[in-house]
Write a structure and sequence with these properties.
- The protein is α+β, with helices and mostly antiparallel strands.
- It has four helices and six strands; from the N terminus they run βαβαβββαβα.
- The protein has a single domain, classed as Roll (ph1033 like fold), CATH 3.10.590.10.
- Helices cover about 20% and strands about 35% of the residues.
- The protein has a six-stranded mixed beta sheet with strand order 2-5-4-3-1-6.
- A hairpin with a 6-residue loop joins strand 3 and strand 4.
């Protein structure tokens, strides 16, 4: 099993939005970064776990946990001219972008803030904490997963 961090702006899609979805699951679409796409396409597997991270908000941080319940498949939003994720170079015959399905597992009682995470020496090397790291999907090591998970208790 692998561990991930999925970033979303809460005014676009929050952990509460996911929790309210039918079956508490939804597709993670709209990724338009090749590195993040490659992680979804090549490395994220069914059963992997991920932190749900709220970004670009007043208090950015980890707000809960999701589970990957479906591996990568074509992102249909790329084919919809009405979608903000439309990509005219992507087609059903030659899809450029993919998405995975995630299922809500847990919402933390308190946000584990980015500011607090930066104070923990044990998280040295975590992709999220590296200067200039903006990937919307990032790998998380097992030791970082275990430490951060323990903070939610």
């Amino acid at each position: 099993m692998n561990y991930w961090l999925f970033k979303s702006e809460p005014d676009a899609f929050s952990i509460d939005d996911l929790k309210s979805m039918k079956g508490k699951k939804d597709h993670w679409d709209g990724i338009r970064n090749y590195q993040a796409r490659n992680l979804m396409r090549d490395e994220i597997k069914k059963g992997d776990m991920g932190f749900f991270y709220h970004s670009s908000c007043q208090v950015p941080g980890i707000v809960g946990v999701v589970e990957v319940v479906k591996e990568a498949y074509p992102d249909h939003t790329a084919w919809d001219p009405e979608s903000s994720y439309y990509d005219p170079k992507s087609s059903e015959e030659n899809p450029r972008w993919v998405m995975v399905d995630v299922k809500y597992r847990q919402k933390y009682e308190q946000v584990i803030t980015l500011e607090y995470l930066r104070t923990l020496d044990e998280l040295d090397g975590m992709v999220l904490l590296k200067k200039g790291s903006r990937l919307s999907i990032q790998p998380v090591t097992e030791s970082h997963w275990t430490l951060i998970s323990s903070l939610s208790r």
